Amino acid sequence: MRPLGIQGYEATFGTALALVVVWTIAWKGWALWRAARREDKVWFVVLLLVNTLGLLEIFYLFVIGKDKQEPPVQGIGKNRKERGSLTSASSS
After folding, report:
1. Is 56:50 a contact under the CB 8 Å cutoff?
2. Is residue 50 part of a domain?
3. How many domains does the chain have?
4. What is the mean pLDDT of residues 13-36?
5. Do the domain assignments include residue 52?
6. Left (φ > 0), alpha (ψ -120 to 50) or beta: where does 75 sit?
7. Could you tell me the residue range of the domain that residue 42 belongs to?
8. Residues with Cβ within 8 Å of residue 51, at least 6 apart in sequence
9. Is residue 19 within 8 Å of residue 11, measured between CB atoms?
10. Which of 24, 43, 46, 85 could be 35's S-S partner, Cβ–Cβ 3.0 to 4.6 Å?
11. What is residue 11's predicted lDDT score, i.e. its pLDDT?
12. pTM for the complete prediction?
């Protein structure tokens, strides 16, 4: 078997670096989005500035930043009778 030489290692390193960058950006983006939605300002800044190859982001997403059950939006869960009576009253 012939050794790869410099060009072979450069190609392998470039591919590995591209995969690490995509991995990190995906986790960082999701974690930053979640921190912004939850208004966690301190976590947002920490996640933005500290690069841990996605480890801190994964920890935040699955341990710290779990979504709490949000209350339903008013008006979405109304039954058909209530909606029907509102529309029939307004159309008369």
Report:
1. yes
2. yes
3. 1
4. 94
5. yes
6. left
7. 1-67
8. 24
9. no
10. 43
11. 79
12. 0.62
